[in-house]
Every structure is written in structure tokens, then in C-alpha cells.
Write a structure and sequence with these properties.
CATH topology: Rossmann fold
CATH architecture: 3-Layer(aba) Sandwich
Strand content: 15-25%
Largest sheet: 7 strands, mixed
Shape: globular
Helix content: 25-40%
Strand order of the largest sheet: 1-3-4-2-5-6-7
Number of domains: 1
Mean pLDDT: 85
Low-confidence stretches: 1-17, 20-25
CATH superfamily: P-loop containing nucleotide triphosphate hydrolases
Bound molecules: guanosine-5'-triphosphate, magnesium ion
Number of strands: 7
Order of helices and strands: HHEEHEEHEHEHEH
Distance between the termini: 69 Å
Radius of gyration: 21 Å
Structural class: alpha/beta
Length: 237
């Protein structure tokens, strides 16, 4: 037909479609996502010894669990930053790393701890790290929230149950949340029964265990909301 160029028509459609799509996805952002856009994180200290733990008194969210369960990965996913080092080899995190998370909701430390109970790895390393984790769990009064991570495929092991009990007895008024990790590695139908099994082994209601994945981002909005809920509200300079 005279005056119509099919190529031009396609070009106009190509530019209009992505713009309207962008507007729709922006409108769907949750309050947590909006906050996460304005979050900043920085490493405060890597402590090899309890004497190196900070004394500012900011509330802390602790990431605890067996080696390789996904503590550092989960911390990065919640902070929307690649600050904690991760690895597929157990024993990656060997210090207690304190990261300050700052956002419109306030300030809080995210604390990445070494793992306990490696299946493999040097015995000397395990013997050196275990007292550091214990000193933190038993002695740290500023823990406002503790995430105890359990791999959904492995379930609760003796060390996990011991740490769960120690967390409840430690100083301060700490909330403990049990996080089942790597849900993407199970087929969808197996996630619920595996989560229930973890709750049963620890003797807690099954809706107290949150299934998560840093790959699919399942469960992460709820965790970010609980971190924000314990943050110190006044900006801290
Ligand atoms: N598929 C999948 N892999 C994950 C997930 N979370 C962590 N991983 C992987 O699990 C491995 C261990 O993750 P880390 O975050 O380093 O584990 P960690 O608990 O900090 O380990 P340590 O520091 O050694 O105690 C890495 O290869 C991660 O990529 C997840 O949700 N899904
Ligand atoms: Mg780690």
C-alpha cells in the first residue's frame, strides 16, 4: 500500500512495548523492595576473637548454621550487595564479620559467622572456629534476631539442635528464626514436607520455619522485613 512502510510499524511497536512494561513492573514493587533500593552496607570489622567485636550497641542480626548452608549468600541477598564472601567449599567464612546495613528503616548490623560442623575440611580449622561461634552465641547481648539456617535437604543435625537451644538461653531479648535454605534444589512438592520435618525435629510450629532460596528469592521479602523490624530507628553517625 502506498505510504505504509511495514518496517517502520515494527520499529514503533518495539519502542512502545518496553516502556509500558517498565511502568507496570515499577508499580508492583513492594515496600521492602523500595527500601532495598536505598540501602547501603559496609564492613565494620572482621573479628578473629571476641575482643574484636564492636561495642557500638547497635542491634544485630546473626547468621548461624552449619558450614556451607548458605549464610553468607543469604546475607548478601538480604542486603542486596555482594559484601560477604561465599564459596562452594565449606569453611569460607573464618571470622565474625560485622556489616552495617543502613536504610530508610534505620541501622542494624548483619553478622556473618563461621559455620560449625563441617563434613570435610581441616580439623584444626574446626577446632579454632567452634569457640569463636560459641563465644558469640553465649555471650553477645546485642543480638536482636538470630537466623539459624538449616539446609532443607539435610534437615536438623545434632549441632543445629544444640545451637538452637543455646540461642534461646543466651543473654538479651533475641528472636530466633529458623531458615530452611536452598529450596530451589528440591522439587516444589517436597519443600513443604521438608520444612515441616525441620519444625518437628526442633519442636516448633511449622509456620515458624521459613523456606528460602537465593536463586528464586523465595522467602527473602519476609526476612528483609524482619531485619527492618529490629533496626535502630535513629540514624547513628
Ligand atoms: N542452589 C542454591 N545454592 C545456594 C543457595 N544459597 C547458597 N548456595 C550455595 O551454597 C554454597 C555455600 O554458600 P555460602 O553462602 O558460602 O555458605 P556459608 O554457610 O556462608 O559457608 P561457610 O562460610 O563455609 O560456613 C555456595 O556455592 C552458594 O552459591 C541457594 O539458595 N540455592
Ligand atoms: Mg560464609
Amino acid at each position: 500500500m502506498p505510504g505504509v512502510c511495514p518496517q517502520k510499524k515494527n520499529t514503533v511497536f518495539f519502542f512502545v512495548f518496553p516502556l509500558s512494561w517498565l511502568r507496570v513492573t515499577q508499580a508492583r514493587r513492594s515496600a521492602q523492595e523500595e527500601d532495598s533500593l536505598e540501602m547501603r552496607t559496609r564492613l565494620i570489622v572482621s573479628a578473629q576473637d571476641p575482643r574484636g567485636f564492636p561495642t557500638s550497641g547497635l542491634p544485630e542480626v546473626a547468621f548461624l548454621g552449619r558450614s556451607n548452608v548458605g549464610k553468607s549468600s543469604l546475607l548478601n541477598a538480604i542486603a542486596a550487595a555482594r559484601i560477604a564472601r561465599t564459596s562452594h567449599t565449606p569453611g569460607r567464612t573464618q571470622q565474625v564479620n560485622f556489616f552495617e546495613l543502613h536504610g530508610p528503616f534505620g541501622e542494624v548490623y548483619l553478622v556473618d559467622l563461621p559455620g560449625y560442623g563441617f563434613a570435610k575440611g581441616p580439623k584444626e580449622l574446626q577446632e579454632r572456629l567452634a569457640p569463636l561461634v560459641l563465644a558469640y552465641v553465649e555471650g553477645r547481648g546485642t543480638v536482636a534476631l538470630a537466623f539459624l539456617l538449616i539446609d532443607l535437604r539435610r534437615g536438623v543435625e545434632q549441632r543445629d539442635a544444640e545451637v538452637f537451644n543455646l540461642l534461646a538461653q543466651g543473654p538479651g531479648r533475641r528472636l530466633v528464626k529458623v531458615i530452611a535454605t536452598k529450596s530451589d534444589k528440591l522439587n516444589k512438592a517436597s519443600v513443604k514436607p521438608a520444612t515441616h520435618a525441620i519444625a518437628q525435629q526442633l519442636g516448633i510450629p511449622s509456620d515458624h520455619v521459613i523456606a528460602t532460596s537465593v536463586v528464586t528469592r523465595a522467602g527473602l521479602d519476609a526476612l528483609l522485613a524482619s531485619v527492618q523490624a529490629v533496626a535502630h530507628r535513629q540514624p547513628h553517625d
